[in-house]
Amino acid sequence: MRKTLAALLLIGALFAGAAAGQTAATAQGPPREAGEFLKPDLVELVTLDRSVRLDIRYATADNLVGRPVYPEARAFLQRPAAEALVRVNAALRTHGYGLLVFDGYRPWSVTKIFWDVTPPDKREFVADPAKGSKHNRGCAVDLSLYSLDTGREVPMPSAYDEMSPRAYPSYDGGTAAQRDARDLLRRAMEAEGFSVEPNEWWHFNHRDWARYPILNLQFSEIAGRFEL
Ligand SMILES: [Zn+2]
What we know:
Blueprint: H1 2-20, E1 42-44, H2 45-48, E2 53-54, E3 76-78, H3 79-93, E4 97-103, H4 108-117, E5 140-147, H5 176-190, E6 194-197, E7 200-206, H6 219-222
Parallel strand pairs: 2-4
Antiparallel strand pairs: 1-3, 4-5, 5-7, 6-7
Bound molecules: zinc ion (ZN).
Residues 135, 140, 142, 203 line the site of zinc ion.
C-alpha cells in the first residue's frame, strides 16, 4: 500500500508540474515526511451535502495569483473532516446560513505557486512549500457563510484571501454584524473539531490533520480513487 501511495505521489508531482507549466519550479517536489499516516480518503464535499455551496476562487482569475490554478471548481476533504463539515452546515441552517466553500484539499504544486508569487513581507498568509500546507493533507478548508434567504455571501470584516490585519479572527474593526457572522462561523466550526488559523478568519484546520500525508494529486486523479 505504501508503495502504491508513493507511486501516486510521484505521478501527482509529474502531472502537477506539466499542468501548471512549472516543471522546473516543482522539480524539488513535496517534502518527504517520516512516520505512519492514515490512508487518504478524499471525499468531494457536494457528494455528501448539496447545500454546501462552492465558490472556488482558485479555479478563476479572481485569486491572489490572478489566473486560474485549478482546472476544475471542486472541493475535497478527508472523509472525517468532510463529515464534520456537513454537521457544521446543518447546525448553521438554524441560524439562516449555509457554508460557502472557497477551497479544501489543495495539491502541493499549487501551494508552491502561491509561495512563489507572494512578496516576502506577505508570506505569513501563505504556507511554506518546504513544510507543506494542511490543505495539502486534505484537512484544511477555507470558507464563509451564505444567507439561506438571499443566497448571497455574508459580509465579513475582510475579503477572502485579503492579506491585511482585517483578516485576523481577532480583528475588532468592521461592523458588529460582520464580526458576529465571523464569530458565529468560528463557533460552529470549533464545535465540530476545527480550529481557526490565527491570521485568517476563513481558514480552519481539522483536528486530525497531522495524521494525513502531504499529497500532490490533481483533482482529476482523485475522483473514484478513494471513494468507496
Ligand atoms: Zn486556507
